[in-house]
Amino acid sequence: MTNLRRGMFAALALALSGLPTAAFAEPSAALRSACTSDAMKLCDVFHSSMDQIGQCLVAKRSQTSPRCQAAYDAEMKQTAAKK
User: Fold this and answer.
1) What is the pTM of this model?
2) 80, 73, 59, 66: which is closest to 37 by C-alpha?
């Protein structure tokens, strides 16, 4: 189970780093932590590519947990402030 969790965490990190709307190179630990369970619940993470998982999270953003949404918003604000 631990290896599966680590694999899913790594998969989510790669998926979130490839989000088309995201301007960051790598998601923060807070974003990965906040959204991993949402990705596992809402997206077919076992049969999807990293791009598909990222697209799924963007498409189903309204269904993600408030914690995931808040972490994503914070990440986007922080990235925008760096520009």
Assistant:
1) 0.64
2) 66
